[in-house]
Amino acid sequence: MTDDYRKGFWLTLAGVLAFTPDALLIRMSAVDPFTLACGRGLMAGAVLLLGYRIFVSGGFAKALRLLGGWGIFFAGLQACASLTFYASFSYTSVANVLVIFACTPLLAALFSRILFGEAVSRSTQIAIVCVTGGLIIVASGSLESGQWIGDLLALANAAILGLSFAIVRGRRQFNMIPAVVLGLLVAGTIGAFFAEFPEMDAVQWGALVAGGAVLLPVAIALITIGPRYLPAPEAAMLGLLESVLGPFWVWLVIGEDPGMRSIVGGVVVISVLFVHAMGRFRQEHGKTASPQ
Questions:
Q1: Whole-number CA gyration radius for the chain
Q2: Which is nearest to 110 in space by CA: 153, 169, 152?
Q3: Cα–Cα distances in Å, from 224 out to 2, 134, 171?
Q4: How far apart are the C-alpha atoms of 72 and 247, rounded to whole Å?
Q5: How many whole angstroms from its chain centre is CA 12?
Q6: For the packed helices 33-55 and 60-89, what is the interaxial angle rounded to 10 degrees?
Q7: What is the per-residue DSSP string for 55-98?
Q8: pLDDT: is 147 or 1 the higher one?
Q9: What 8-state DSSP symbol labels residue 259?
Q10: Is 101 helix (H, G, I), strand (E, B) or coil?
């Protein structure tokens, strides 16, 4: 096991684990989506901007200009992803949001094929079909409970993120962190125009600040850096921890029950994604172990 592999594994694992209580903090904030987007976007964007100026040589504005049109487009996607993510929590369960969110890597593969001609493997095609079946089970429960709007918002969020990841993969020569910062700040600014800004108690303020100023920027930084040293299939497997542990923390602390169909559909989706990632992991290691 190389030093780079260890570095990538621990950085990615730390980033994913940091993200797992995020849904709980969103629920504990108990405010409207635009207030969330404003508070968390501005705080996370400011912290990441400060970290970039401290740890990265070269000016932030110059780095952003070098990204050109792709950077502006990516920042717009980041802003849209933030807004749809927070809005989805207002209309559906945490479990549904995170199960649908887990499909992002498969959507990224589809967008990579469409935009950059990257081949979609047979196993990925099968996984997409199976995951679609799991999402249908999740959606069937949402139709009865009236949560389908939240599910659609979560699916839109996953599609936007999948497109973002495809751009990162297709334009890997660029550092997109400046665009992420810009996107968070744009989302926060948009949120400020529509936010209700309700009165909040100490618990709500604590959850909002902990999520926006600490958890979000730390997790984004770690997950952005870690996969550079780790094979993509292994990063995908680690990413599934959020979809498993996120609803668990919400159920444990505030007792939110996602419903049986969401649980069954979630098990199908997570199982398919895990098997798919394991298969990709073995393929990557087989290539590494084969003689040159």
A1: 19
A2: 169
A3: 20, 28, 14
A4: 33
A5: 13
A6: 150
A7: HSSS-HHHHHHHHHHHHHHHHHHHHHHHHHHHHHHTTS-HHHHH
A8: 147
A9: -
A10: helix
Supply 260's token pair.
């049986």
Local structure of residue 215 (DSSP, 8 states): I
Nearest to 175 by CA among 37, 62, 18, 85: 62
Distant-in-sequence, close-in-space partners of 253: CB < 8 Å, separation ≥ 6? 24, 28
* Residue 156 banded pLDDT, cuts 50, 70, 90: very high
- CA nearest 269: which of 232, 290, 292, 242? 242
The DSSP 8-state label assigned to residue 171 in this structure reads: T
Contact yes or no for 117/169 (Cβ under 8 A): no
**Six token digits for residue 199:** 């009165």
Q: Which two tokens stand for residue 180?
A: 């992420």
Contacts of 199 (CB under 8 A, 6+ apart): none
In angstroms, the CA 234 to CA 282 distance is: 10
Q: How many angstroms separate the CA atoms of 255 and 136, rounded?
A: 25
Give the tens place of pLDDT for each residue, 75-110. Answer: 999 999 999 999 999 888 888 888 888 787 778 778
Quickly tell me which residue has 């990257």 as its tokens: 118
| DSSP one-letter code for 146 | T
Token pair 């996370």 in the structure block, residue? 44
Query: What is the rounded distance in angstroms from the CA atom of residue 263 to the CA atom of residue 205?
Result: 31
Q: Could you identify the residue written with the tokens 């389908």?
A: 148
pLDDT in tens, 22-35: 999 999 999 999 99
- Check whether 123 has a pLDDT greater than 80: no
DSSP 227: G
Which residue do the tokens 């920027």 mark? Answer: 217
